[in-house]
Structures are given as C-alpha cells and as structure tokens.
C-alpha cells in the first residue's frame, strides 16, 4: 500500500514560496512522480523512495534558475518530516537523501533507485524547452525512445496530472 502523500505535500507547501505551477512547482513534482513510477516497472527501483523524491527534490528552491543547495535543503526538509508525515526505513531514507542532495550535480549513480529518481526528473526537461539527452539519462528504461517521447510530450505541454487534485487534494 503506497503511503498517502497528501500530508507530505501539505507540509511542503506551507513553506513553498514559488508559483505552484512554476517550472519547479507541484505540477513538475507530479510529472516526476508519474515518470518515476513508469520507470520503476523496468528498473526495479524502490517505489516509495521514488515517490518521495518527486515531492522533495525541488521542495525548497529559492528561485527558478540555478539554485545551489536546493537539493540539500529538500533533503533536510525530508529529514524533518520523516516520522511525522511519512515513514521510511533507514536504508530507504539514505537513498532518498542522496537522490535529493546530488540530483543537480551528479550525472549518474550505480544504485537503481537513485538512477530512477534522476531520470524521472530529467525526463521532464521539456517544460523549460530542453529535450532529454539519452546520454544524460541513467537507466536503460529512461533512454528508451518511447519512454522519452511519452514523458517529453507531457513536459512540453506542462500537463497537470490528475493526481495533483485527486491524491494530493491541491486544486490549482
Ligand atoms: Fe532540482
Ligand atoms: Fe526537478
């Protein structure tokens, strides 16, 4: 049974200062989550870590451009909220922490869960006018043309996934 992310998202939004529908806002988090779950079917990544990465990795950005340290701040928020609004084992949390902290500066990672998190994020680059480069994707699944095409189409049109309202209770 997947954890309910509604209370997690509500806590994140309490301190989120950028536009919800901005380049790194809630609609991006939801597309990253959906990309991630699609990739999990092939990569064997930990679905709960991937879901939590989606909502935390950009949760404490200060701006919509180059924002050094935002991954670290997202990881710190996750640490503060762990045990309050979500549960992970120590080993799962270590993966979430690394995935958040290093998502901007590292190219790839040998751990399938971390690699899946980063691909889920990079497959949404179309929202800022970039096309995902297969050479910069970490998993075989993420590099598959049909996966890129599907994710990129949604990114370009900045599709708002139904889960934003239906699972997170956020009406935009
Ligand atoms: Fe980021
Ligand atoms: Fe992101």
Structural notes for this entry:
With 172 residues, the protein is mainly α. It has one domain: Hypothetical protein af1432 (Orthogonal Bundle), CATH 1.10.3210. It contains nine helices and no strands. The protein has helices spanning 6-14, 26-43, 47-56, 70-81, 90-101, 112-122, 140-143, 145-156, 163-166. The longest helix has 18 residues, at 26-43. The protein is globular. The two termini are 27 Å apart. 42% of the residues are buried. The model has no long low-confidence stretch (mean pLDDT 98). Bound molecules: fe (ii) ion (2 copies). One fe (ii) ion (FE2) binds next to loops.
Fold topology:
Layout: H1 6-14, H2 26-43, H3 47-56, H4 70-81, H5 90-101, H6 112-122, H7 140-143, H8 145-156, H9 163-166
Helix pairs in contact: 2-3, 2-6, 2-8, 3-5, 3-6, 4-5, 5-6
Bound molecules: fe (ii) ion (2 copies).
Which labels suit this protein?
mainly alpha, Hypothetical protein af1432
Number of strands: 0
Radius of gyration: 14 Å
Q: What structural class should be given to the helix and strand makeup? A: mainly alpha
Helix-strand topology string = HHHHHHHHH
Q: Flag low-confidence runs.
A: none
Q: Any guess at the CATH architecture?
A: Orthogonal Bundle
Domains (count)? 1
List all distinct small molecules, including ions and cofactors, that are bound in this structure.
fe (ii) ion
Q: What is the overall silhouette?
A: globular
- Count, helices: 9
Overall average pLDDT: 98
In CATH's first tier, which class applies? Mainly Alpha
CATH topology: Hypothetical protein af1432
How big a fraction of the residues is strand?
A: under 5%
CATH fourth-tier homologous superfamily: Hypothetical protein af1432
């Amino acid at each position: 049974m997947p954890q309910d992310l509604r209370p997690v998202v509500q806590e994140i939004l309490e301190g989120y200062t950028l536009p919800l529908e901005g380049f790194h806002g809630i609609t991006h988090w939801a597309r990253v989550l959906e990309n991630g779950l699609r990739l999990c079917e092939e990569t064997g990544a930990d679905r709960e870590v991937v879901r939590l990465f989606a909502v935390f990795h950009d949760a404490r950005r200060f701006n919509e451009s180059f924002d050094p340290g935002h991954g670290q701040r997202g990881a710190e928020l996750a640490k503060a909220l762990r045990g309050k609004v979500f549960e992970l084992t120590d080993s799962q949390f270590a993966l979430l922490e690394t995935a958040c902290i290093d998502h901007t500066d590292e190219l790839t990672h040998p751990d399938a869960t971390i690699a899946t998190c980063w691909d889920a994020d990079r497959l949404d680059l179309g929202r800022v006018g970039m096309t995902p480069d297969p050479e910069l994707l970490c998993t075989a699944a993420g590099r598959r043309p049909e996966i890129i095409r599907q994710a990129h189409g949604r990114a370009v049109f900045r599709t708002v996934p139904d889960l934003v309202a239906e699972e997170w209770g956020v009406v935009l």
